[in-house]
Amino acid sequence: MHCPFCRHADSRVIDSRTSDDGLSIRRRRQCPQCGGRFSTIETASLNVIKRSGVTEPFSREKVMSGVRKACQGRPVTEGDLALLAQEVEEAVRQTGTSQIDTNEIGLAILEPLRTLDEIAYLRFASVYQAFDTLDDFEAAIGQLRADHAAAAAAATDEV
Q1: What confidence score (pLDDT) does residue 96 get?
Q2: What keywords would UniProt list here (predicted)?
């Protein structure tokens, strides 16, 4: 790391702290030549490989905008969308790869969206799981109903 004061090619780390969101590290540094102190913020880059083959940085806003379309007319707030986008980013970063395909991001959105709103989930899933027929919708709805029945049975067993 070059010193911003004297442009010396080296610096010493004095202190390191993770940010509140846990996605970056703030480092306090000192130049051994001039003694100047400065801070750096380090983040791990996460790139998205689009269908066209182009790569671009991951964007929570793009996740929110795609999910927002599926949530039109549903009781979902902007705060809900922001939390969902954060959850998706954390899940994608936990894979440990620096590049991820857009389709994998779409699939990572499905489970948190299902928890948030099932109608929005069906809308979104119809695109990312490539529903071609009514049978695809019926299968997805059948799975949702089976999950509801299993959750209700588990709740009555606990009582």
Answers
A1: 82
A2: ATP-binding, DNA-binding, Metal-binding, Nucleotide-binding, Repressor, Transcription, Transcription regulation, Zinc, Zinc-finger
What pLDDT score was predicted for residue 97? 86
Q: Is residue 6 part of a domain?
A: no
pLDDT, tens digit, 9 for 90 and up, residues 68-103: 999 999 999 999 999 999 999 989 988 888 899 998
Residues 80 and 116 in one domain: yes
62 and 118 inside one domain: yes
Give the number of domains in the chain.
2
Residue 136's domain comprises 47-158
This prediction has a pTM of: 0.69
User: SS3 letters for the chain?
Assistant: CCCCCCCCCCCEEEEEEECCCCCEEEEEEECCCCCCEEEEEEECCCEEECCCCCEEECCHHHHHHHHHHHCCCCCCCHHHHHHHHHHHHHHHHCCCCCEEEHHHHHHHHHHHHHHHCHHHHHHHHHHHCCCCCHHHHHHHHHHHHHHHHHHHHHHHHHC
